[in-house]
Amino acid sequence: NRDLETFWKFTRNFTGTKDMRLSVNHLEDIAVLSEARQVELLPMFRRLERLEFHGAHWTKDKTAAVTTILNLLHCCPVLITLRINLTAKYEEEDASNKQGGHKQKGTTRKEILMAAMVGPRYLFPCLQSSLRKVDLQFQLEKKDCLGVKLIKTFAENAMVLEEIRIDSGDEKLCEHMNPRIAKWNSSRREFGATNFVLLPLKR
């Protein structure tokens, strides 16, 4: 909790910038879930147009990591370009977990939806009117990894999105996702959103 407050209060020193680069070692530690805490802690970067974000996260609690990224989007109402570089951390189960002992509670789907408030009725300003380009760099360890979840989040909620570029370690991921992209674009047109393309990200 102390680290969470320190991080968000420190970022208030940069609310006037147009270009920001952040690096966070544990994304889960700075996720702000409750609405009251969001009002208290989250700053507003009213001029920020480009955000580059490097973050490490535990593979067992993807939802908290997503919440942190959505917290950042909430702070950036005129964001145009977003680049995210993710590093997955793998946590070995301890002996008590293997023996059926206590397991640490992860962030529930209900909590993340409450915190993120994404969907047709709840769109952050940047998702509604400014975010056009997203670059995602992540390791595709399995089909529901954090990088894939973020692709889905932007595809369903970024209304003026033009392109998502990805580097997942799998050169065929773009090809595999083409049917889903076509389905998402069809759904997006119903809401008056732009079509977007999924392209490989060149390092």
Can you tell me about this structure?
The protein is of the alpha/beta class and 203 residues long. The chain has one domain. It is 38% helix and 19% strand. It is built from eight helices and six strands, in the order αβαβαβαααβαβαβ. The chain has helices spanning 2-11, 35-41, 62-75, 95-98, 109-116, 125-129, 146-157, 173-190, and strands at residues 19-24, 50-58, 81-89, 133-137, 163-167, 197-200. It has a six-stranded parallel beta sheet, with helices on one face. α7 links the parallel β4 (133-137) and β5 (163-167). α3 (62-75) packs parallel to α5 (109-116). The chain is globular.
Offer a few descriptive terms.
single chain; 19% strand; F-box_dom-containing; 203 residues; 6-stranded parallel β-sheet; 8 helices; FBD domain-containing protein; globular; alpha/beta
